[in-house]
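Entry for the shared binder. Reason: the reviewer on the internal report wants the predicted structure included alongside the sequence.
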Amino acid sequence: MTKGYIHSTETMGLVDGPGIRTVVFFQGCVLRCAYCHNPDTWSFEGGQEVSPQELLSKVLRFKPYFEKSGGGVTCSGGEPLMQPKFLLEFLKLCKENNIHTTIDTSGVGAGNYEEILKYVDLVLLDVKHYDRDGYEQITEHSMDKFNEFTESILKSNVPIWIRHVVVPGITDSEEHMIELKKFISKFKNLEKVELLPYHTLGVNKYEKLGIPYKLDGIEAMEKERLKVLSNLL
């Protein structure tokens, strides 16, 4: 029986896709994003071991809320695409039970993307940067895997919401937004672009884990500035 590793779940989520949602945070991620606020999900060890059926049983309790609000399940992380077999089986069960499915992903996983996307109703795609140097500076990882996933997205008909974290001094210039707009114009199924303000709410997790925080000293993004930049997209 396939088993997956889940960091945690959040019920009644309102910001990770349409309607009221159950958000499942998968354990494990290979990226080391400078602004990540969930470093406790990086490790592939630990987390709660569950089967797709066990996870579904937890989700089904909230199905009445999904039906009333147009909500469903969002698989987040960590990185859900790093557990492709478990993810696929869980998504299939969700669709068998008429539950709307969303994956919140960096696009860096372990393959089988085109098969997985057959059972996905919406992709929340986290675009870290539009060019290789900027991407590697933020994530400490090559952009190749991300590009591989975007090729699968382009072949599919799955709607996309793009998310992009705006960090003062790194991704907050008007020139950056103009180039980002050019980059995301290739996604034919794009429904929405969300600029997310950099915040420091996860800094205490780094202290507890004994991990140096790369953006120490950078203040949270001002929301008024974010509004100005949003108008450029």
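Summary line for the report: The chain has a mean pLDDT of 95.
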